[in-house]
Amino acid sequence: MQPTARHLPAIRLSASALTTLVAALLIGAPVIAALLTGLFGGGGEAWSHIVSTQLFGYTFTTLGVLLLTTVFILLLAVPAAWFVSLFDFPGRGIFEWALILPLAAPGYVLAYAWADIMEVGGPLQSVLRDVTGLSARDYWFPNLYSAPGLSFVMACALFPYVYLTARAAFSNLSLCTIEAARSLGASPARIFINVVLPSARPAIFAGLALALMETAADYGAASYLGVQTLSVGIFRAWHSFSEPAVAARLAFLLILIAFGLQLIERRSRGRGSVQQTATRWRTPKRRKLSRQAGLMVAAGCFAILLMAFILPVTRLVWVSVETGIGQKAILRPFLNSLVLAAAGSALAFVLAVTVVVGARQNRFSQLIGRIAAGAGYAAPGIVLALGALFILSWTGFSVAGPAALVFLVWIYASRFTAAGAEPLSAAFSRAPASLGNAARSLGANRFQRLVRVDLPVAMSGAAAASIILFVEMLKELPATLMLRPFNWDTLAVQAHAYASDERLAAATLPSLLITLAGLGPVILLSVQLTKAGESRAAG
Amino acid sequence: MSNFIQSLTCFAAASLIAACSPSSPDAPASPESGESAETAAVEPGSNGTLRIYSARHYDSDRLMYEAFENQTGIRVLYREAGANQLLETMKAEGANSPADLIIASDAGALWRFEDAGLTQALPEGEFESRIPARLLDDKRQWVGLARRVRGVAYDPERISPDQVDEWQDLADPSLEGEICVRSSTNIYNLSLMGEMIERWGADEAQAWAEGVVANMARAPQGGDTDQIEAVAAGLCGVAITNHYYWVRMTESRSDSTRDAALSTQLTFPTFGEGTSHHINITGAALSATSKQQALAVQFIEFLLTPDGQARLTTETKEIPVIDEAERPAGLERIPQVGESDMRLSAFGEHQAEAQRIFDEAGWN
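The joint structure predicted for all components is written out below.
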């Protein structure tokens, strides 16, 4: 916040806010178009039908899934991050980066794999019957085609977000604080609850907010598992009732939920900001666990990895090999996926930088940037695609030509800018204000400060942002389904088409390739973050 | 790290350029295949372009388009998505819609396009003489290209054939706790119910739905394949399924999948004495905005040759509609079906009522 902005609002706002405004409009236009259609479109009868019969169910299911996913994610991510950052145990060096790997596998791919593993004719239950001699009617078995099943799958796919933010927070803990607590005789458990968690809470909530918004917007996994969330309801309103306006209204609810999540996250940040004195951050030296405890922790970490990554991926590889791979024309969808994700993340990156930098300039930019990015991220891809189609029809374009690709890249950016803005903004906030002030006193203008002071400081965050953007876009499904041009498939589209056509075997190859394509960037991210943590620890 | 960012940016820029050049979206169906380009009788695209919206997702369809391109010189551009999604896309595109031909499975799905005013009457052509009259819609809004039959796969050790030889049997209390079936929102169930409403009237159809719900082994979930798997695993005795899911399982390269299907029996119930089976279609419709009527008919006629039929059905395991066509491997395991006398448009006309009946019966 600059005092001058208050004194000369007209001039300052027009200078700095204009860029943000343009970026925000670019991000927000598809949402706005969809919401306008929702407000002014028809759909009276279908709307009252849905309000009276489905709305409560959709909302309740969505909130229930979010709640359960939160529980699962916290259980998976926080203990893992805690042990990996502060203790030494067998395999710690591997788990430290390997626990991020599930980020490469989209939720819907995990849903295909886990549904196949858990189904009544699948390997788990077959073995169970063989071992016990029971018949399929004699026992209860957890049903993946349910809200808890969906929550489990989404938690497996998205817990790395919280693992990452929590790990960063734990490694940034002030050694002094913990030492002080220890010297005052606090037990490790008390230190964790009274000292560590409060200071890590904002980071955990930040990761959780991202993961939950992704969960709320998920279409692929929820529809495959037949769970009637708002996202699925939006599809249904549009596709079965033929009421895009109703779909847009449901989307409004979803966006409200996402804003609620963001609000909670902001508030927690405000209240929980236990300030660390900046320069003396040091990762506390990792304590070596006893042999027994170490093995138990290692087993726990391995179990998480097994559940969220190794088992489902192995199952897909198994099905793929068993049924014969190599007959599919997969190269072009693979390239298409890479091209789209790369172009989309480039645009989103620029938008994210604009929004984050704008937010540091003045409140107006902060507000519109945040609202636009938040709304885009909260809206499921299908709603943005809907908005884009309306814009297309207003402007008289057709999606037949390469224009569709441009639109698609735009929708990707609109959808995911927030995912890139989060790590960027976190990284920028690590740059002390004094640094910027010093640069200003040396006569650097805003752009010079951005390029020469802020961006280098925020480089690790920028790399993380671009990688997250790329991986998220690789996995994008609903908007791609809607907007892709002729003869143009991505891996996600193929995987979805085959899987929903009950041809899991055919879906395995594209599913695995998405995961594979995401794996490289995720490992890069992982290594980079781990190194950053270590250099900080050494420094 | 700045190197990393730099290379990422370069990659992004290069990709953008790539997006606009070699694999441009207006490329023909399968440009990689050099061989077919050499043997091509006519250069694809020299005789116009046909834009197809298809609800099918088969690798063999690409080869089918390519074969047509090479035979006729007509370039094929395609977009594949779920039928409902294609329909809503076309609505949103409005008068700008580039679609010429719509290909979708299930007459109920084709009817939705017609009902939304997205189709136009097919011009007269030689193709009509090759197929039974029932496969051409009364108002010529769509034409059937392949057959699909909805039936049941049952466990021969628990269920006797006469317990499932009519659809009515499935509502009989003797099958309590035996039936596995997918959700009622699925078009296959809606079309099946549509035929029941047409044949029996809404009340009897409703009673049937309630009887089946009372007999379900579990709440509807998954697809048809999952129901067959559930019968094989012993969870239920009867699965409602389209024939080709069962046939594909019997042709699977996975031993366990093949064994699962072969441990069940596939049969096609009738709607009562002297009636036929529930025979549905995969078909094509001409988009209302299309000006390529002649090309579209040419494509339909191509699909109604023995070669076209083989390309259409070999991978899907649907049943060809012309007698000269070779039947896909695996179809020898299913019961013979004749032609039904049921109007195909009835499936769509009763769709809304079918959904209402399912909802009221508690069939989710």
